[in-house]
Amino acid sequence: MDCARVQELLHLHADGELDSLTTMELDRHVENCRRCAAARHGLASVRATMGVAVLYERAPESFRNQIEASLDRAAGRAQPRMSIMPRWLAMAAVIGLVAALGITLLINNSRSTHQLASEVVADHVRSMMGDHLVDVHSSEKHVVKPWFQGKLDYSFDVTDLASSGFPLVGGRMDYLNGRPVAALVYSRGNHPINLFIWPASGQAASEPAFREQQGYHLAAWTDHQMTYWAVSNVGEADLQQFVAQVRHP
């Protein structure tokens, strides 16, 4: 990745809109390029300043009182049957605004979930290239869990699912959703299953949601204040069984 491309992507990177592979390439370039490192630092400084800047001034209380008095006088002069219409119009406007905000939030959430699912698939595919699948190779949970200590700012459980047909292969560090995450690797026959885990950041517990993307089966859920994403090319029934075993071993 060259400097021109990095400059184009810095704003997207700051907004967390890049996939994991592009983010890793950008970070690798910035580590070795003073010019791009300075540009990213400058952008971060501007955003931090904008985040705390006071961009408006509160109107004095006397000005508010004048407006309210004017509205009261106007309401007193209005005909009774005409005064009903503005109230209904206001209610309709509020209902329309709430509906529009709800639709916008729904669309944004859908886009965010689709983007995250794409990142999960990309990380899964990358992990199967060369020797990227595991950083610590072990079927013992008492070996895999301690390996993550000091590498992440959170802790999580590692479950032994060998008796259910999903033996633990190992684990590795990965990058998802704009942060380093844990990736536990299980297998079903010759098919690896990546289980990504990171803190849920206050999100409520949720039941697993299954989807298919780019030919892979995925499952996402929140439990015990952790977010889980599982991905594999195993059949949907196998992935559902795996998720059930992870949640209730």
CATH architecture of the largest domain: 2-Layer Sandwich
Low-confidence stretches: 49-57, 104-111
Beta-strand share of residues: 15-25%
Q: Domains counted in the coordinates: how many?
A: 2
Number of helices: 7
Short description:
This protein is of the alpha+beta class. The chain is built from seven helices and seven strands; from the N terminus they run αααααβαββββββα.
Explain how this protein is built.
This protein has helices at residues 3-14, 20-31, 34-52, 61-77, 80-127, 141-148, 236-247; strands at 136-137, 168-176, 179-188, 191-199, 206-213, 216-223, 226-232. It has 249 residues and is α+β, with helices and mostly antiparallel strands. The chain folds into 2 domains: 3-52, no CATH class; 106-247, Phosphorylase Kinase, domain 1 (2-Layer Sandwich). A 7-stranded antiparallel sheet has the order 1-2-3-4-7-6-5, with helices on both faces. The longest helix has 48 residues, at 80-127. The chain is extended, with a radius of gyration of 26 Å.
SSE inventory with pairings:
Blueprint: H1 3-14, H2 20-31, H3 34-52, H4 61-77, H5 80-127, E1 136-137, H6 141-148, E2 168-176, E3 179-188, E4 191-199, E5 206-213, E6 216-223, E7 226-232, H7 236-247
Antiparallel strand pairs: 1-2, 2-3, 3-4, 4-7, 5-6, 6-7
Helix pairs in contact: 1-2, 1-3
Looking at this protein, list some descriptive labels.
alpha+beta, Phosphorylase Kinase, domain 1, seven-stranded antiparallel beta sheet, 7 strands, 51% helix
